[in-house]
Amino acid sequence: MELKLSELLDLGRESVMRPRAAAARVLRLDLSYDAVLTAMGAVIACSAILGYLANVMFPAPVQTPWSVLTGSPLLMVIVQALGVLVTALGMTHVGRLFGGTGGFFGALVLTVWLETVLLGLQVLQVALMPLFPLFAEMLGLAGFVLFFWLLSHFTAELHDFPSVALVFVGTLGTLMAVAVVLSFLLALLGFASH
Predict the structure, then answer these.
(1) Disulfide-capable partner of 128 in 59, 61, 93, 136 (CB 3.0 to 4.6 Å)?
(2) What is the pTM of this model?
């Protein structure tokens, strides 16, 4: 299946405006594993390069835990690839715990598409940084909101859940549970903050 740029842009707009319908459309594309993995690699590589360029153009005035990531494109690629896979696994298995029927491949397809939409926002953000830095920062916050908006709708469509609001609550609950478990594990390993 080959998509033209105009079709991708149209699908991107639909993803923001009518995410559930866009998710159904993406799932109907009947993509191969090779195509999805290639798209995943391309999107992750582009995102890492953009993140690195943004860091070089506008270094953070204060070192943060994220500074290590943004300073190394290779590390960013690894972390983002893990993030995509963990998101797809979580979308699959947590959805199934609540009676969903979606599979891992569909979750991976939707997660890669979600990252593609966010990449479009990231391109806009980096392009606006030199001219309108405050607006570019606000786009970063919009990206955070857009991530949860798309994830909730895409998960609802994947598993045929009727309520996107309940999926959103389930997503937040899952993230909090994972954060608690990770905090506990990091504390056990001696990484607790002092």
Answers:
(1) 136
(2) 0.88
